């Protein structure tokens, strides 16, 4: 251990997405290859001697306690736990909520010694995994609010690969078998099903961890919400969601010392008639079992919406993935201006 194939695979996966900036400590990790990477894991991260590193992935992550702070992380899956090696910007952005951060180390900032914070979720504490729409993200849930993390892969391939590796590792866990189910009477068997809402698809793994996938109703709910935002401009039956993708909106700042741009996470939804940008809550829904009250904000909040017929042109960058697209819309204040002019000029 480890096999040459595994070391080569982990080395290939050890690449920070080019559009995201990370701290010096994580850049150091991304520079490690093959055996050096495995040795780094065993000497700096692994909690027990006999655990094996099985998978590595770079992803943006969100914590349940800090739903507004998206931070870059190196996600390491071993046979014992999932490790999130975090960018140190997370520590400074939300120190009062980061209970696991030792503040005595904060005087290292100005030295050449770079510190990273590592969040550990043991596989034995894992209860469920919720996969987001079109495999754009997944949420890992443990036994408390401190143990809920969403990985925003923005990539169905990365999500699928991680879920597969996680299932394989969970199969190695020896857990006590579930108690025998209690015989239910007629009323309890059928009474709970008449809620009028179909449950999401659940796959209960042999380790008793639930893998929960969205069903068709979730797309239906999203289409209804989108139709509401369109102020009845179209009829719901003909509304089809053609594309759902987690993207970034680029805000360009001119006039600063150097022209800089910031990336704002957005959910882009394309229908047959409109293009929408939503601020989506990726961490709070569906509600965890211990949640006492609903989240402070809705799952989807409309940030911008434009009609496709007002689209003038689309500019495409020539860089490799991730691709930058600029949508240029006709800048007409009153969207129905032309229609109103026609009515005024030609009367009835």
Outline the structure in words:
This protein is of the alpha+beta class. It folds into two domains: 4-174 and 198-212, Pleckstrin-homology domain (PH domain)/Phosphotyrosine-binding domain (PTB) (PH-domain like); 216-329, PH-domain like (Roll), CATH 2.30.29. 23% of the residues lie in helices and 31% in strands. The protein has helices at 4-13, 24-30, 34-45, 89-93, 156-170, 186-191, 216-229, 337-346; strands at residues 53-63, 66-78, 81-86, 117-122, 128-131, 138-141, 148-152, 201-204, 210-213, 241-253, 260-271, 274-280, 300-307, 311-316, 325-329. The protein has a nine-stranded mixed β-sheet with strand order 4-3-2-1-7-6-5-9-8.
Write a concise synopsis of the structure shown.
The chain is an alpha+beta fold. The protein has helices at residues 4-13, 24-30, 34-45, 89-93, 156-170, 186-191, 216-229, 337-346, and strands spanning 53-63, 66-78, 81-86, 117-122, 128-131, 138-141, 148-152, 201-204, 210-213, 241-253, 260-271, 274-280, 300-307, 311-316, 325-329. Strands 4-3-2-1-7-6-5-9-8 form a 9-stranded mixed β-sheet. A 4-stranded antiparallel β-sheet has the order 10-11-12-13.
């Amino acid at each position: 251990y480890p096999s040459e194939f595994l070391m080569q695979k982990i080395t290939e996966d050890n690449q920070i997405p080019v559009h995201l900036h990370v701290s010096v400590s994580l850049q150091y990790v991304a520079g490690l290859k093959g055996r050096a990477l495995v040795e780094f894991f065993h000497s700096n991260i692994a909690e027990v001697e006999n655990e094996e590193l099985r998978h590595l992935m770079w992803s943006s992550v969100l914590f349940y306690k800090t739903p507004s702070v998206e931070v870059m992380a190196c996600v390491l899956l071993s046979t014992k736990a999932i490790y999130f090696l975090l960018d140190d910007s997370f520590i400074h952005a939300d120190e009062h909520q980061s209970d696991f951060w030792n503040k005595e180390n904060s005087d290292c900032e100005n030295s050449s010694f770079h510190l990273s914070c590592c969040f550990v979720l043991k596989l034995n504490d894992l209860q469920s995994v919720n996969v987001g729409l079109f495999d754009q993200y997944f949420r890992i849930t443990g036994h408390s609010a401190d143990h809920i993390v969403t990985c925003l892969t923005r990539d169905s391939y990365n999500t699928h690969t991680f879920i597969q590796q996680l299932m394989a590792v969970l199969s190695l866990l020896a857990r006590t078998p579930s108690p025998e189910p209690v015989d239910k009477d007629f009323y309890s068997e059928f009474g709970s099903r008449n809620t009028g809402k179909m449950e999401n698809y659940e796959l209960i793994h042999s380790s008793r961890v639930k893998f929960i996938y969205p069903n068709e109703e979730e797309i239906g709910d999203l289409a209804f919400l989108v139709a509401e935002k369109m102020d009845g401009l179209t009829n719901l039956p003909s509304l089809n969601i053609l594309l759902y993708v987690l993207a970034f909106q680029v805000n360009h700042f001119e006039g600063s010392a150097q022209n800089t741009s910031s990336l704002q996470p957005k959910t882009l939804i394309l229908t047959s008639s409109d293009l929408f940008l939503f601020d989506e809550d990726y961490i709070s829904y569906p509600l965890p079992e211990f949640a006492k009250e609903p989240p402070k904000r809705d799952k989807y909040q409309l940030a911008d919406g434009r009609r496709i017929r007002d689209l003038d042109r689309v500019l495409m960058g020539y860089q490799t993935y991730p691709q930058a697209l600029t949508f240029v819309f006709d800048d007409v204040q009153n969207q129905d201006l032309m229609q109103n002019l026609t009515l005024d000029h030609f009367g009835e």
